[in-house]
Amino acid sequence: IICCIKKIFSEKRYSIFFIRMIENLHMVSQKGMEISMKQYQIRSILIGCMLLCLTGCTANSEKKRDVLRVGVVLYTQDDPFINALTDCLKEDLAEYESDSLKVIMTVRDGKNDQKIQNEVVKEMLDAGCEILAVDLVDRTEPSNIIKMAKKENIPVIFFNREPVREDLMQWDKLYYVGCDAEQSGIMQGEIAAEYINSHSEVDKNKDGKIQYVLLEGEAGHQDAISRTEYSVKTLMKNDVMLEKLSYQLADWNRGQAENRMNRLISQYGKKIELVMSNNDEMALGAVEAYRKAGYAREDWPVIFGIDGLEEALEAVKAGEMQGSILNDRVDQAKEMAKMAVELFEGEDFEQESLKEGRYYFSEYQKVDGSNIDEYLNAEETISHSGM
Ligand code: GAL
Ligand code: CA
After folding, report:
1. N or C end of the chain: which has fewer CB within 10 A?
2. How far is the CA of 278 from the centre of ligand 1 (A)?
3. From the centroid of its chain, how far is CA 255?
4. % of the chain residues with pLDDT over 90
């Protein structure tokens, strides 16, 4: 009962109503009018009934649904892979909605600036989110976010940009969902080597070496570093003789990659035989550069990306790209949604299935001419668990 009365007072309209009641009673007695015991009892009963009605209503609406607010803070809203992952997350969280649970997911932009992202996280916490999902701008700078979340006791699921281990271990409510970048580099090297070793025409000038350029994501990003290193190592390990023409940073971005490729095309012309790209967006930038340069298809280099974006898969189907590595956004989003709900509900949080109780890594998958039809237009089935 005390709880109910507290609830009533927490609702302004009810407290105003109650205060008016008391005032009325007070006025009546001030005017010297005698309230008989009976009248007094009737009034008390009436007020009691009203209170009960009101508490009943409040309790009913409260009972209706728990509300889980998930605050998603991206490093930028201009990244197609991240946006596709965020769309999946929204759908997955919606699937947890029921008569007893309402889920509200809010997405905010870190605008590629760690300070801005920290402020956005603060706003999300002030607004009362229960779970944070953060794709860090700078993966080496999560300390402020961790401090703020810890103070409010709000769990954080970092995703895509992996904080260093010591940071993730700073508090036991920090998690990471992503992939093992080395695996994507190795797989990309393998599909490229397989293609090159079975298509002698790739070596256009027949010098026994593959002249290549590499489009790099972003300095310091764990995916860019590992993909660059392992794709090249794997090509060499698989007997492809390489000659490096140029490495270009293009920030995961299609437009930047197109510009860089335009410059390389004017510098090297038809000499470029292979383009290895740290992601699909940049590979598509290279495709665009070759389309616009008006080269005949046999003068194009072979082009490999990573992510398995729909447009890249179409380019593979059209023969403009030779392969991509699926970065399983469906699986990552599914895990994030599951974690968010389980952490919110507090029970049965399956920490045992996570590496060190904190990390979830999705498996990459190879996509090339041999299996493109399984992946193209089959977005909802993309998930390593389902294939
Ligand atoms: C990578 C992805 C890139 C880019 C980057 C952003 O995993 O392959 O396309 O989205 O994350 O951090
Ligand atoms: Ca050559």
Report:
1. N
2. 9
3. 22
4. 78
Please indicate whether residue 329, judged by its CB atom, sits closer than 6 Å to ligand 1: no
Q: Distance between alpha carbon 171 and the CA centroid of its chain, in Å?
A: 21
232 pocket-lining for ligand 1 (C-beta < 6 Å): no
State the maximum Cα–Cα separation within the chain, in Å, rounded to a whole number.
114
Residue 108, token pair as written in the block? 């905010």
3-state secondary structure of 69: strand
Amino acid at 205: N
Task: Give the helix ranges, DSSP H, for the chain.
Answer: 2-10, 12-30, 37-64, 80-94, 114-126, 143-152, 165-168, 181-198, 222-237, 254-268, 280-293, 310-317, 329-345, 372-375
Centre of ligand 2 from the C-alpha of residue 320, in Å: 19
DSSP 305: -
Q: Residue 103: what residue type? A: V
Residue 47: what pLDDT? Answer: 58
CB-ligand 1 contact for 160 (6 Å cutoff): yes
Other beta carbons within 10 Å of 97: 14
Model pLDDT, residue 51: 53
CA–centroid distance, residue 215 to ligand 2 (Å): 19
Beta carbons within 8 Å of 101's beta carbon, 6+ residues apart:
65, 66, 67, 68, 341
**pLDDT per residue as tens digits for the range 130-153:** 999 999 999 999 999 999 999 999
Question: How big is the chain by its Cα radius of gyration, in Å?
Answer: 30
269-311: per-residue pLDDT in tens?
A: 999 999 999 999 999 999 999 999 999 999 999 999 999 999 9
Position 45, amino acid: I
Q: Which amino acid is at 345?
A: E
Q: With beta carbons less than 8 A apart as the criterion, state whether 157 and 339 touch.
A: yes
| 162-214 pLDDT, tens digit each | 999 999 999 999 999 999 999 999 999 999 999 999 999 999 999 999 999 99
Residue predicted with more confidence, 304 or 33: 304
Cα–Cα distance, 309 to 246 (Å, whole number) = 25
- How far is it, in rounded angstroms, from Cα 351 to Cα 167? 18
- Tokens 């580099």 label which residue? 185
Q: Is 79's C-beta closer than 6 angstroms to any atom of ligand 1?
A: yes
